[in-house]
UniProtKB/TrEMBL annotation, chain A:
Organism this protein belongs to: mine drainage metagenome
UniProt GO MF annotations: 2 iron, 2 sulfur cluster binding; metal ion binding; oxidoreductase activity
GO cellular component: membrane
Keyword field: 2Fe-2S, Disulfide bond, Iron, Iron-sulfur, Membrane, Metal-binding, Oxidoreductase, Transmembrane, Transmembrane helix
Membrane-spanning ranges: 20-42
Protein name, UniProt field: Cytochrome b6-f complex iron-sulfur subunit
UniProtKB/TrEMBL annotation, chain B:
Gene (name only): qcrB_1
All residue ranges annotated as the Cytochrome b/b6 C-terminal region profile domain in the record: 277-405
Source species taxonomy: unclassified sequences, metagenomes, ecological metagenomes
Single GO biological process annotation from the record: respiratory electron transport chain
Protein name as annotated: Menaquinol-cytochrome c reductase cytochrome b subunit
Transmembrane segments: 62-87, 116-134, 146-166, 211-232, 297-317, 347-368, 389-407
Amino acid sequence: MTPEENNEHKTTRRGFLELTLGWTTAAAAVAASSAAAVRFLVPNVLYEPSAQFKAGKPGDYADGSITFLEAERCFLLRKGNTFRCMSAVCTHLGCTINETKTGYHCPCHGSVFNEDGKVVGGPAPRPLPWFLVSLSPDGRLMIDKNQLVPADKYLVI
Amino acid sequence: MKPSFLQRTWEGFRDTRVGRSIFRVGLPGSNLERAQAMVSSFLLHFQPAKVSRRALKPTTTLGLGLISLFLLLILVGTGVLLMFYYVPGTDQAYAAMKDLQYVVSAGRVVRNMHRWAAHLMVLFVMLHLCRVFYTGAYKAPREFNWNVGLGLFLLTLGLSFTGYLLPWDQLAFWAITVGANIASYAPLIGPKLKFMLLGGNVVGQSALTRFYALHVMVLPGLTFLLLGIHLWRVRKDGGLAAPELPVDQTEPLEGGSLPVNKTYGLMELAKGTSFQVGRDPDEEVFSWPHLIFREMLLFLAVIAVVLFLAIFFNAPLEGIANPIHPPNPAKAPWYFLGLQELVSYSALWGGVIVPGCLVTALAVLPYLDRSRKGVGRWFARERRVANTIFSLCLVVAIALTIIGSFFRGPSWSWQVPWKTPAAAVSEEH
């Protein structure tokens, strides 16, 4: 082996700097721009309907009624003086479920939920969530879809 | 023979300074010019100057890849036309579809052509994949090109999916809802992926904008990039996969024997372990006119079929998107119905795990199946095991698609296609 060949395998100052400064900087630049591009795709402001909404006065709903709130895609249930609100969005793939005599049926992939939102058939992996119902200062029902509650939690008027 | 009027006009133009500057080679009269015609033309140069008679036989490949390419060209042409009217806004998209249907001259035919060419392209890309499998054409040295083709298959599905959302009809809205929710089942990144895909939590304007950008720019760009590599690699990998020559033909060469496993290259134009050695020159013919005219004929046939379908069958358009109620049953287009049937058992298994495993299996296949036997022949006996496994998967996929198409009624419950389901009447909502 000639001395020149032997030298090629040794780390030279130039080689070391190329590796540490050159390639590390290049990798960091690529990583940073990729991260920025991905972050760019995540919106910071959403122009979507609020998760909190008012649903009229308690007196608007008859005793024992199950009302489908269309725009908000949820069911408002009144029993006596108690109110509960259950999501109408199937936990499987997000279709709107239909209320039937035998429970709630999803038209897309056939999930079935009972009156408590528990899965009794089909591919849905989770029960339907229940939302917090409260009374606003002006005497209207307030529903907050960001606050989940157990199925047996009621608002008592 | 007296030259026709067309011929005289063409030759008159070719003889001018301008004509000669554009067309370096005229209509070929000799074999030299036939080769030059292929090499010197931008549109033709990516094809070989000569092709084997075997490659020209329709039964060798059935022309499935070529048909897919022609359909893609039709899709680009009609797609660009549609872009002149379509507006990707939730309040305008559906009206633009109605305009295309009823107001724009030839708008209906252009939209129909785009739709039918898209459906046919999904079908022919699938058939092309099957052809390559059943002829063992994915084996070395074509492993990489098989994977490029797999990428093109996935891009085709992505283009179809993003495409049928754009009309903003009921199918569009609920397909985007279901599709984005399937994405949310992906491990670790699922919910974030869904948020990024929709540009929010709900299916609305930002989702439509994103799918539009994907459909007209991102996915077509990637498709043409991969397509370029795909066609280029077909040449580089030695043209169509052909059966290995019998050993006694490759051996006898004057001036000593050549190592059998050496790779021969000719000016980097073609590579192969048996490049031209022992091949009979009479087995090859000039691409001009034998290949080119066949291709043109096929292109005409593809356009004719798409045009026929577009004139006599209207592309469906459902009612305007209703974010409150999905149609019942809400069915995907036929090529996703097998997947929808799987998803109706479990979103995680049917939407993520099973498709993920299938794609991975197809991707690593050429690296696992390393035998060189049975390449270039349909249903080769040596490939019984591989062909049987592939056929079984295919049968299951077709069965799932048929079940999803004909045996699922409202609420995805079982029904027999020749009976009106009682549930459809009573559960109308």
